[in-house]
Amino acid sequence: MVKLVRFVGLIIQSILIEFLHVFGLVAFLVAAALGFFRLPSWLVPIVGIICGVIADKYVDQSEVVSILEKAASANMRGGFLVIVYIVIVAVGYVIGAHSRRWLYQRKIAEAAPAPAPKPSPAPKPPQKRNRGGSSKR
């Protein structure tokens, strides 16, 4: 259990490092666009792996090593970086899909006019009752 908590903490720290680099934020926004435009969800791991490999090969992370040393040393391993980018892309996809649904519900709420209050009918004049039992003449 302790190892799982440490691993999750290490992933969160690595996500922070990747967001400090612009490339992590770009991957997140690409995934949000995938979710917003309803592209298939099987693209999430593919985009995560591609972003992880690109970040491993081409992004220089020496600038932020002093911030979080353990996470920075874990980011030097390509496999761990791929896991981090799969998590970033999965969260971005879900947020993009939910933002589309939220925007759609908001648009429907703005388009529907509020129902106008119905005017109350005019009161009828009171009728006189014939108590004498005789018919009207």
Give keywords:
0% strand; single chain; 137 residues; 66% helix; 5 helices; mainly alpha
Q: What would you say about this model in short?
A:
It is built from 5 helices and no strands. The chain is mostly helical and 137 residues long.
Provide an overview of this structure:
The chain has five helices and no strands. It has 137 residues and is an all-alpha fold. It has a domain at 21-111. Helix 1 crosses helix 4, helix 2 (22-36) packs antiparallel against helix 3 and helix 2 crosses helix 5 (78-111). The longest helix is centred in the C-terminal third of the chain and has 34 residues, at 78-111. The radius of gyration is 31 Å and the shape is rod-shaped. 20% of the residues are buried. The mean pLDDT is 84.
Which shape, going by the Cα principal axes?
Answer: rod-shaped
Number of helices: 5
Structural class: mainly alpha
Evaluate the radius of gyration.
31 Å
Estimate what percentage of residues fall within beta strands.
under 5%
Query: Oligomerization state of this entry?
Result: single chain
Order of helices and strands: HHHHH
- For the secondary structure, the number of strands is 0
Report how far the terminal alpha carbons are from each other: 97 Å
Share in helix: 55-70%
